[in-house]
Amino acid sequence: MNKGSIMLCLVGMTILIFTACGEKKHASDSVMTFEKEEERVVTLFSPMEKTKPNVENVARSASEKTVVMAEEKLGVTVNYITYTAEDYQDKTYDTVALDRARNDMDDLYLLNPDTIQILAEEDKLMDLSELDSAKNLRDVVKSANVVDGKLVAIPQEVVAYGLFINKDLFDQYQLELPETPEDFLECCRVFKENGIETPVGANRWWLETFVLAQAFTDLYNGGNTEAEIAALNSGEKKYSDYMRPGFEFLQEMIDCGYIDAEKAYVSEAIEGEGADFLAGKTPIVMAYWGAANSETAYGNPDFNMLVIGFPSNRGQMPVMSMTGIAIGVNAAHAEDAMKTLDIMVSDEALQVYAKTNQVISPSKNISVDCIPALKPLNDKINQNIFVLGSNASMKLEQWGNTCIIVRKLLNGATVEACMAEFDRLQEETNKIF
Fold first, then answer.
1. How many CB atoms lie within 10 A of CB 124?
2. Angle, alpha carbons 393-398-402 (nearest 5°)
3. Mind listing the pLDDT tens digit for each residue in 123-161?
C-alpha cells in the first residue's frame, strides 16, 4: 500500500478520541495490517482516524513525513498495525493496545497517558533516556512520561486542551469570556434562557478536562507542586478532595441541562457534538489544540472561533496531556525500533511535524506560530499557566481514571459515589506502591 493511503493519525489527537473502556470482545476483528516485504521491518501500532471524504488529513501527513524520514535514513520499512473503535460499545484503542503490548506483538506503540503509565509499571516499555532526541525534551514532557526514573514514551506534540468558543454567539448575548466556574455557569444560563437547548457540546471522553482544571489549578500554579504530589502519594491528602469541586460543577451542569448527559455518555469525540457547534447551535465544546487546525475537526468554521482555557479559581486554565510513542521491552526489532524512534522525534523531524500541524512541540528547541483562534490558549501556556492532565510522578493515574469516573457520573452515579471511587483507587494504589 502506498504511503498516501496509510491512515496514520496524529499523536495525541485521535489517540485521545478513542480511549477508556468498552465492551465488545472481538476487537481483533477490526485490527488491520499493512505490510511490505522487506528485510528490515519495524511494526508500529496506532489508531486509524475516521476521516471526512475529500478532506486532507494534515495530522496523518505530519506523522507520515517523520516515518518516511526514518525509513530513508535507516533503510528500514515501518509497517502499520491499526485499530479504531467504531462506537461506544466497541473495545477501545487503549484496551487493544494494552493487550498487544503485554503480548509483545509490535515494536512501536502510540499510547495514551494512562496506558503509558500502566505498561511502564508492568515493565513492558523500554527506557528511552539515552536517545539523542531525549536530550531536547521540555521538562513538562519528562514530568509526564518518566516512570521510576525511566523515560518510557516520547510524543510528537504536546497536546493542549481548551474550550472552543463561538465568539459570535457570546457577542450576540453580550457575554464576556468566562474565567471562573461561576462565570461559565452564568454564560450557560443566558444561552439556555435565550433558546439554546444545550449550551455545551460534550462527548464521553473529554469532560474530565473541566474536573482536572479545577482540581489541580493550585497544585501546578501555587508554587508547592512537589510537596502536594508527595502528600497525595503518601495518602496524607486525598484525590477526592481535589476532584470534588469539578464533579460538583459537572453535576450542576447536568442538573441545569447545560450538557446532555445521556448523549455525552455514548458520543464519540467531535462526532457527537461537532455538527451542532459548526452549525452555530452549540456555543461551547471542548477539544485539543490540533482540532483548531484540522478541517476534519474545527479548522474551518463559519464564525469567529476562539480557544480559551477551562474555568478555574485562577482564571482560564489550559489542560495539557502527554501521549507518546513507546517501544516494547521485548520488541522483536528493538535496535531498529530505537533508531527509528530517535529519528521520528529528532529536532529535524519534529520541526517538520510542528510546522505541518502548527502544534506545540515536545522539543524545547522548536516553536511554531499558532493561528489567531489559538492565541488565548497559547498565551497562557507561554506564561507557564496550565494544568497537567497526566503526571507519571503521581502514583494514581489521573487522565484515564478521571475519564472513567466522569462517565459514571454521566450514567447517574452521585458525586459522593464518585469520590468514594477515587478514595478506593488511591488506597489500592498506595498498597501496591
1. 20
2. 170
3. 999 999 999 999 999 888 887 888 888 999 999 988 899
Q: Are 330 and 320 in contact (CB under 8 A)?
A: no
Expressed in angstroms, the distance from the first to the final Cα of the chain is 46
Cross-strand bridge partners of residue 109: 45, 326
- 68 backbone dihedrals φ, ψ, rounded to 5°: -60, -40
Give the residues across from 125 on adjacent strands: 328
Give the amino acid at 32: M
Residue 352 CA to chain centroid, in angstroms? Answer: 21
Q: What are phi and psi of 269, to 5 degrees?
A: -60, 140
- The strand pair at 305-308 and 387-388 is best described as unpaired
Q: CA-to-CA distance for 154 and 157, rounded, in angstroms?
A: 9
Name the grid cell of 255.
442538573
CA–CA gap between residue 302 and residue 369 (Å, rounded): 22
> Which 3 state secondary structure label does DSSP give 419?
helix
Query: Going by C-beta distance under 8 Å and a sequence separation of 6 or more, which residues neighbour residue 99?
Result: none
- Residue 85 sits at φ, ψ, to 5 deg, of -70, 135
Nearest to 175 by CA among 154, 193, 161, 148: 193
Segment 40-77, tens digit of pLDDT = 899 999 886 544 444 344 445 788 899 999 999 999 99
Instruction: Pull the grid cell for residue 402.
Output: 478521571
Q: Which of 34-43, 85-94, 222-231, 422-431 has the lowest mean pLDDT?
A: 34-43
* Nearest alpha-carbon partner for 179 in 214, 207, 146: 214
Per-residue exposure over 229-263, b if at least 16 CB sit within 10 Å of its own CB, e if not: beebbeeebbbbebbbbbbbbbbebbeeebbbbeb
